Amino acid sequence: MQKPLEDILVVDFSQFLSGPSASLKLADFGAKVIKIERPKTGDICRELYISNVKMNGDSSVFHAINRNKESFTANLKNEKEKQEVWALIKKADIVIHNFRPGVMQRLGFDYPSVQKVNPDIIYGEISGYGNEGPWKDKPGQDLLVQALSGMTGLSGNAGDGPVPMGLSIVDILTGVHLAQGLLACLVRRGINQEQKGGLVRVSMLESAVDFQFETITTFYEDGGEKISRSQKNNAHAYLGAPYGIYQTEDGYLALAMASIPELGDLLGCEELLAFTNPRKWYEQRDEIKRILADRLRDRTTEEWLRILEPADIWCADVLSWDELIESEGFKALDMIQKVQMGDGFTSQTTRSPLRINGEPLLSSVGAPKLGEHTKSIRKELISRN
Amino acid sequence: MKPLEDLLVLEFSQYMSGPLAGLKLADLGARIIKVEPPVTGEGGRNIDIKGMYVDDNSLLFHTINRNKESYVANLKVEEDFQKVENLIARADVMTHNFRPGVMESLGLDYKRVNKINPQIVYAEISGYGTDGPWSGKPGQDLLIQAMSGLTYLSGDRGDLPTPFGLSVIDILCGNYLVQGILASLVQRGKTNEGAHVEISLLETALDLQFEVITTFLNDGGKLPNRAKQGNAHAYLGAPYGIYKTVNGYLALAMTGLDKLGKIVGLESLGDYSDKDYFDRRDEIMDKLRAVFKTKSTDEWLAQLEPADIWCADVKGYKEFLNHKAYQILDMDQTLELTNGKELTTTRCPIRIDEKRFFSSIAAPQLGEHTKGIDKEFALDMTYEENIHEVKEN
């Protein structure tokens, strides 16, 4: 399959998750991504172990984020090695970095400098909080941005205190927005011959705000009311009953939007029949959820699903990964791919969630060892200059 | 000029995931026409949060569908169907997020549309893929969170499965659809051929968890283990988490325990090995919890920040949205509604060539642009006449 970005070269200075997750998406679309890494240590993410899992010398997180990329080591303070990076930039379509504001200026690879050498460059940069304002020098880290942006008030129940979303959600979304901007510039390049290059800037804070666009807009409209999670079974602080996850006799049941009296009928729960006004299911949510939670504990998840699903009530079992992976619905997706590193080490990971013309975007190339491609890149892209 | 100006997108999508993709494309300059059924319009007009409505439409609908036009067509009526076919012949992109089989029965599946317009990028979202045993299930955000294992990552160990408190899967899926669309448009620039882009909410939910699922797949299948209290990431060691202070809360990211211990007066933290950060997480977090509750958040920040410890105050919307650090982003924009009122919402988070993208155009009333679009695209012509006209131009 011809992938859409096969002739695109990305020079990626970024580390950790936000920038590298953007270049992973570009790699999945077929772009050649070269990571520029510091000698000896490389991308700090190589050392970011989660639950102490190390795979072939690097963290599992590094493997997941950096598959299908090449690694070129260069000491950016050494003039000769710096010139090699410049040679790569001359040939590149896209440059990415996520250093704190000012660092690329000091290294000499800021946008105006790069643009001088390669006027058609599409230059993408991620900051924590933008390049201006009182927070610009704060560390741009996922949990901190969640905490500062109000996001930790949305999950969990009313009495819980702040509950972060348990993944690097802001990093991921910032990477998504960067990739979106870079792709838009590539589209523009095709339409507008006058404007081949461009500067794309995103910040983690702005991406965190965009993620909350519904609830922030609601906050502006409702007169600035404090976020109010339901007492129990909260799944969205702004949605009415029954929206939530409930305990059953043997597990859990997720219930999305549904008519309360209809649920009352189906579940054999007369108390619910009185809640006839849908526009009150928000303010009455604690009372409704309490009644529902009591009733749903009486039977197994399977029994409830057998009653609710045929009535097209939006509900689901709550699965853990081992249960999910065993299910036929998961197997039908063919979501896991095997990747192999240059030294033969193989591992399993997920693939891109997209399909184009019926084909998933697969790649069997694993993450690079630090500096694995320095020599081959020199030969292929630098020495022939 | 915005980067996607001149692109015409037809949005057959409803609710959140597909319309969010349309919003992102609109913000980057594309023209979005929602093709909606008569009388009710798309289902999202009636999905509300907090029971809030702006006019006949929910506030939520207004938030997701600003900067778009609305064209009403009954696709089961021959005359309307032909007009939509004519519109498709002019479009660059179309999106839908109906359950598998619906567009086939309407006669607007990819095969059919590709015959009308071979250059079109046809992008669709399903809940669980278009085949397989779950393909007929309702593709809804919370249900996908529940099915995908995501609810075991947030909250503390003793808590019920805890969902992310936003439509995270819908939002991410819409954004990924945009990536697929834009990459296909880049390809079209080279080949002059359209493409069929597909994604599902479940695949999106798995992609969202790619780091931790990769860890699970290569670690003998150990399930996530949330911290006992103050959990912020089931897979990250101490001190990563949230701690109560005298007057609020403190978020603490990855930090060397040795250095942290010295600053907060817990020298014993220096004795833990690298492996203990995760394996003895609860014990370490208990010790920190006891210390952090003795001073105010500001007092702790004054000690920790100068030492470059990664920490932050925990803010609510009122405090955050009124803070100078938020206001300097110039992130808000005002929409002008047809009933004369105004609505404040946020802008596109991407800046290109130092420009922020604003638009004051509110969400369309149902069918607001039908007549204008009929006229502009001469949709009353027969399909053959219209195709001829497209070829002439």
UniProtKB/TrEMBL annotation, chain A:
Molecular functions (GO terms): transferase activity
Keywords carried by this UniProt record: Transferase
The keyword Metal-binding is assigned to this record: no
Matching SUPFAM superfamilies: CoA-transferase family III (CaiB/BaiF) (SSF89796)
Name the record gives this protein: CoA transferase
Species for this entry: Fodinibius salsisoli
Automatic annotation (TrEMBL), chain B:
Single GO term (MF): transferase activity
UniProt KW keywords: Transferase
InterPro entries for the chain: CoA-transferase_III_domain, CoA-Trfase_fam_III, CoA-Trfase_III_dom3_sf, CoA-Trfase_III_dom_1_sf
SUPFAM superfamilies in alphabetical order: CoA-transferase family III (CaiB/BaiF) (SSF89796)
Pfam family, one: CoA_transf_3
Source organism: Fodinibius salsisoli
Protein name: CoA transferase
Domain of life of the organism encoding this protein: Bacteria
